[in-house]
Design brief:
This protein is an alpha+beta fold. The chain contains seven helices and 23 strands. The strands form five sheets. It has a six-stranded mixed β-sheet with strand order 2-3-1-4-5-6, with helices on both faces. A six-stranded antiparallel β-barrel has the order 7-8-13-11-10-14. It has a six-stranded antiparallel β-barrel with strand order 15-21-18-17-22-23. It binds guanosine-5'-diphosphate.
Length: 423
């Protein structure tokens, strides 16, 4: 028995290339719409003597959400045999970017829509960029409106060639290219009879083949150290290392290494609030453990299991930041970076790219304004331990504090060498 899964996805592409139509199709063809909704929308169209569009289904659901009729705001769903899909608001929206960068919600896969007749547009390339910046690496490129180009295989192949060339440059490998017609329903939920030359998957088959992220409990063990407490009981003094487990699992007897110090010991006992002297404790829980050695550890270090993936240790890194501050993020200015339980002085060494949420323009700038996403190199006052977003999102996530207020959030994409003059 396998329980049903959820998967959050996003759908991106140039305006009018057919995103809403494809979503409408997915909902209708999987029978995921609320009872009577399809008929109601069709009836409405008839009454107003306009042709029915699948895109209207999405509008109708959004209206309901706006009126508070359906419970889940700004989300829509469709079901397949194995999963419930949640479609997150698309990257043109500030909330989506903010949630993705700060980790409030994550799309695990993306559909990137390109109009077969219009071909690759500037926005198609920006969206590719954005997905790669956000670390979404399960991407299917949907070549839509194939009905408008006579279901021509050559046109489909030309788009693959042109777009793959671009994606390669930014290190993105799409999982698939699928020729569809959202309007007619070709290759969305049902295999098309109009494109016998296409032997690949439908959009729905592709979605079901995307992989869910592994549960955090199966990831490497990470516990940012919140505090170290000393207990003395009948002359026996011991230190308890306390924190909340971000990922993975720790058990009595495990070899533990603390980073960035690199100090090593073994777990002697575990203290927890939810159980009496448990043998192990896992992600999401507060935990305290005693050690077999009396080593000196401070708040801000990360406890890691010796036999698992090592964290990164550096004072310099390439990051993607979503900026919320009233004042722009400025080169060279002093800020405080908080990651896990560590707090550390920092500054921005370089702003490599800035994307504006509304136009997704890609510009070189010396400042990052509120609601912009930027790729920045940070230099910290001291080395810290962290993970890369592609390995372990939870310990790659940080916030930037400006003048006692959280002014931005981000994830670490790449470790860079410490600056020579600081080593
Ligand atoms: P969005 O802005 O990306 O959400 O695009 P929409 O889904 O609203 O579609 C824009 C227009 O393209 C609408 O008039 C749709 O009817 C039309 N459209 C969408 N998909 C197809 C398709 O596969 N074939 C044709 N011929 N028109 C389509």
């Amino acid at each position: 028995f396998k329980s049903r899964e959820d998967m959050a996805i996003t759908i991106v592409g140039h305006v009018d290339h057919g995103k809403s139509t494809i979503i409408g199709r997915l909902m209708a063809d999987t029978n995921s719409l609320p009872e009577g909704k399809l008929e109601q929308v069709k009836e409405n169209c008839k009454r107003n003597s306009k042709p029915f569009e699948y895109a209207f289904l999405l509008d109708a659901l959004k209206d309901e959400q706006a009126q508070g009729i359906t419970i889940d705001a700004a989300r829509c769903f469709f079901k397949t045999d194995i999963r419930d899909y949640i479609i997150l608001d698309s990257p043109g929206h500030i909330e989506f970017l903010k949630n993705m960068v700060t980790g409030a919600s994550r799309a695990e896969a993306a559909l990137l829509v390109i109009d077969a007749k219009e071909g690759v547009q500037e926005n198609s390339t920006r969206h590719g960029y954005l997905l790669s910046m956000l670390g979404i690496n399960q991407i299917s490129v949907i070549v839509n409106k194939m009905d408008l180009v006579n279901y021509d295989e050559k046109i489909f192949n030309n788009i693959i060639e042109e777009y793959s060339g671009f994606l390669e440059k930014i290190d993105v490998k799409p999982t698939s290219f699928i020729p569809v017609s959202g309007l007619k329903g070709d290759n969305v939920a049902n295999k098309s009879e109009n494109m016998p030359w296409y032997k690949g998957k439908t959009v729905l088959q592709q979605l079901d083949e995307f992989e869910n992220a592994k549960p955090l409990t199966e990831a490497p063990f990470r516990m940012p150290v919140q505090g170290v407490y000393k207990f003395t009981n009948k002359g026996d003094s011991r230190r308890i290392i306390a924190g909340t487990i971000e990922s993975g699992k720790v058990s009595v007897g495990d070899e533990i290494v603390f980073y960035p110090s690199g100090k090593q010991t073994k777990v002697k006992s575990i203290e927890a609030f939810n159980a009496d002297k448990p043998k192990s404790q896992s992600a999401g829980y507060a935990c305290g453990f005693t050690m077999t050695d009396q080593i000196y550890i401070t708040r801000g270090e990360i406890a890691v299991r010796f036999d698992e993936l090592k964290p990164q240790v550096s004072s310099r890194m390439r990051t993607n930041i979503f900026w919320l501050g009233k004042e722009p993020l400025t080169l060279g200015k002093r800020y405080l970076l908080k990651i896990g339980t560590a707090k550390i002085g920092m500054q921005v060494e370089k702003i490599e790219r800035v994307m504006n949420a509304s136009n997704l323009n890609n510009e070189e700038k010396t400042e990052v304004e509120r609601n912009e996403v930027a790729e920045c190199i940070l230099t910290l006052d001291k080395v810290i331990a962290f993970d890369l977003a592609k390995n372990l999102a939870s310990t790659s996530r940080f916030v930037i504090v400006d003048n006692y207020e959280i002014a931005g959030g981000g994830i670490i994409g790449e470790t860079l060498e410490d600056r020579q003059e600081w080593v």
